[in-house]
C-alpha cells in the first residue's frame, strides 16, 4: 500500500493558510493530399554536387549520433542500415500515431502495388488519408532515397502549406544551402518542399545534397527525430542545469501551473482512498512529460520550490549538468479529522468525505533530469544522501526542506536503487498514478478495476532510491 508519514500530516494540519504542504509526491495511487507525386518516386534529374554524408547540426531532441537509440528505446523503432521506403512509411505512421479513418477493406485500395492484407497497408493508408502519401504506386520495397524521406517528413511535420508559399527565387536561395545550383530537374512542388525542409531545420545546410541518393539509417533517423520536434513530441525541457537563466525558468514553470483537477478520473481514485485500498495518489498531465533518454534520466519529486532551486544549485556545485523539465502534479492523500481543521489555499485544497475525514490535494512537482552522461546520473544518489536527505532534526549541512525519505527514481535498473511498481490510469492527456511495493501491484490494480469496471490500469516496474523504498515499507524516517 502507500504511506504518508504521520508527522507530515500533522505538520500540514498546523500550518497557516497559504503554506505549501510538504506531501511526498508519489503517494500515489496505490500505493503510475496528395503525397508522393512523380518527384517523390525519385524521377529527378537536377544538377547536384557529389554526394556527401549529411551532418545534422540543428538542435533537436537528441544528438544525431543517439537519435537511433532514442527512437528504439522510446518507440521500439530500429531502421535497417539501408531502409526501404515501406519501412520509413511505417516508422512515420507510428511516430505520428496515424491510423486510417477508412480502414474497411471493401473500400477501394488507393495503391496498385500493395494488397490490403499487407502489414504495410494500414500505415500507408493512414498517411495517404492525411495527404502525406499520394495514391498510385507505393514502391514499398524500393530503397528509400534522401529526397523521398525529406518529402514524406516535411508533410508529416505539417509544413507543406508553408512550403507552397515559396516563390522560385526563395526556393533557389534555400536549396543553394544544400549545394544545389540547378532545380530544373525538380518539379516546383518538390523544390518548394526541399527548400522549406532546409529553412525549418529538417535538413542541415551542407555542401552537397543529392535527393536521389540512398538514405542511410542515420539520415532517416535524424529526420524522424526532427519530425518529433516539429510536432511537439520530442524531449521537453525548460533548460539545463548550467544555463544562466535556469532558476528563472524553474520559477516560471512552477508559478504558472495550478492544482490538477480531473473530476471523472478522481472519482475512481478518490473512491480507492475512501475504501482504504490506497492512502493517496498523484495526478499528472502527460503534456509536460520530458520523454528523456531513460539511460541518463532520473525523476525527483518534491513540493517546495526553494528546495528545487537549491537542488539545481547543488548539482551545479557538484559539476553535474542535465536537461531539466518541471512536470506539474497534484498529490492527493487522506487527511484525518483528528488532525484539526485544515487550512486551504490556491495550492492546497481539501474535500470532506462521508466518515468526517478529508481528501487533501496539494500542488507539487517532479523535476525530470537527463544528465550529460551515465556517470553523472550514477553520482546523483551520493549527492542527495550527503546534502538532501534528513537523518536528524535540525540537521545542518542540508539544502532547504530536505525530506527524511526523499523520492527519486529511474525507469532503468540502477545500482543502489530498489525495484517498486506503479499502477496508472489514463484519461486523455491526464493520468493518476500509484507507487507501491511490487507484491501489492495486482491487488491494487484489481481493486481499481472493481471500482469502475472497464478501467484500464497500466502497471510497470521501475527503480527508486532506498529511503523511499523504506518509506513504502512504513518507515517515516
Automatic annotation (TrEMBL):
UniProt signal peptide: 1-40
The protein's name: SLH domain-containing protein
Species of origin: Paenibacillus filicis
UniProt entry tagged with the keyword Signal: yes
Keywords associated with the record: Signal
Keyword flag Signal: yes
Amino acid at each position: 500500500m502507500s504511506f504518508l508519514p504521520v508527522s507530515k500530516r500533522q505538520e500540514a494540519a498546523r500550518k497557516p493558510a497559504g503554506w505549501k504542504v510538504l506531501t511526498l509526491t508519489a503517494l500515489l495511487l496505490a500505493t503510475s493530399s496528395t503525397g508522393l507525386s512523380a518527384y517523390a518516386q525519385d524521377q529527378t534529374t537536377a544538377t547536384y554536387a557529389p554526394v556527401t554524408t549529411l551532418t545534422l547540426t540543428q538542435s533537436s531532441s537528441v544528438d544525431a549520433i543517439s537519435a537511433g537509440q532514442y527512437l528504439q528505446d522510446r518507440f521500439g523503432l530500429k531502421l535497417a542500415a539501408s531502409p526501404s521506403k515501406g519501412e520509413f512509411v511505417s516508422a512515420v505512421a507510428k511516430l505520428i500515431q496515424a491510423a486510417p479513418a477508412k480502414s474497411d477493406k471493401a473500400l477501394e485500395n488507393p495503391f496498385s502495388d500493395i494488397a490490403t492484407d499487407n502489414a504495410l497497408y494500414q500505415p500507408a493508408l493512414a498517411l495517404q488519408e492525411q495527404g502525406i502519401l499520394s495514391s498510385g504506386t507505393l514502391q514499398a520495397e524500393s530503397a528509400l532515397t534522401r529526397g523521398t524521406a525529406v518529402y514524406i517528413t516535411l508533410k508529416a511535420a505539417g509544413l507543406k502549406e508553408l512550403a507552397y508559399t515559396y516563390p522560385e527565387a526563395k526556393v533557389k536561395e534555400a536549396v543553394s544551402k544544400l549545394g544545389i545550383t540547378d532545380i530544373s530537374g525538380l518539379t516546383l512542388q518538390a523544390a518548394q518542399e526541399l527548400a522549406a525542409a532546409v529553412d525549418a531545420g529538417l535538413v542541415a545546410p551542407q555542401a552537397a545534397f543529392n535527393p536521389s541518393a540512398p538514405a542511410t539509417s542515420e539520415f532517416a533517423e535524424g529526420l524522424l527525430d526532427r519530425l518529433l520536434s516539429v510536432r511537439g513530441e520530442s524531449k521537453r525541457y525548460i533548460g539545463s542545469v548550467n544555463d544562466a537563466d535556469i532558476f528563472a525558468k524553474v520559477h516560471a514553470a512552477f508559478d504558472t501551473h495550478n492544482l490538477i483537477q480531473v473530476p471523472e478520473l478522481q472519482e475512481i481514485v478518490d473512491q480507492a482512498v475512501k475504501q482504504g485500498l490506497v492512502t493517496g495518489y498523484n495526478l499528472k498531465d502527460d503534456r509536460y512529460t520530458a520523454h528523456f533518454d531513460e539511460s541518463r534520466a532520473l525523476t525527483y519529486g518534491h513540493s517546495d520550490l526553494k528546495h528545487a532551486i537549491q537542488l539545481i544549485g547543488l548539482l551545479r556545485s557538484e559539476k553535474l549538468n542535465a536537461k531539466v523539465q518541471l512536470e506539474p502534479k497534484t498529490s492527493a492523500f487522506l487527511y484525518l479529522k483528528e488532525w484539526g481543521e485544515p487550512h486551504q489555499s490556491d495550492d492546497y485544497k481539501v474535500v470532506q468525505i462521508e466518515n468526517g475525514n478529508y481528501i487533501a490535494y496539494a500542488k507539487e512537482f517532479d523535476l525530470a533530469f537527463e544528465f550529460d552522461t551515465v556517470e553523472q546520473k550514477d553520482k546523483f544518489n551520493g549527492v542527495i544522501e550527503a546534502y538532501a536527505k534528513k537523518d536528524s532534526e535540525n540537521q545542518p549541512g542540508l539544502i532547504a526542506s530536505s525530506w527524511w525519505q526523499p523520492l527519486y527514481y529511474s525507469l532503468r535498473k540502477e545500482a543502489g536503487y530498489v525495484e517498486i511498481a506503479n499502477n496508472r490510469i489514463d484519461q486523455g492527456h491526464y493520468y493518476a498514478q500509484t507507487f507501491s511495493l511490487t507484491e501489492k501491484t495486482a491487488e491494487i490494480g484489481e481493486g481499481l478495476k472493481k471500482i469502475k469496471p472497464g478501467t484500464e490500469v497500466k502497471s510497470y516496474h521501475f527503480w527508486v532510491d532506498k529511503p523511499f523504498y523504506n518509506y513504502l515499507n512504513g518507515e517515516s524516517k
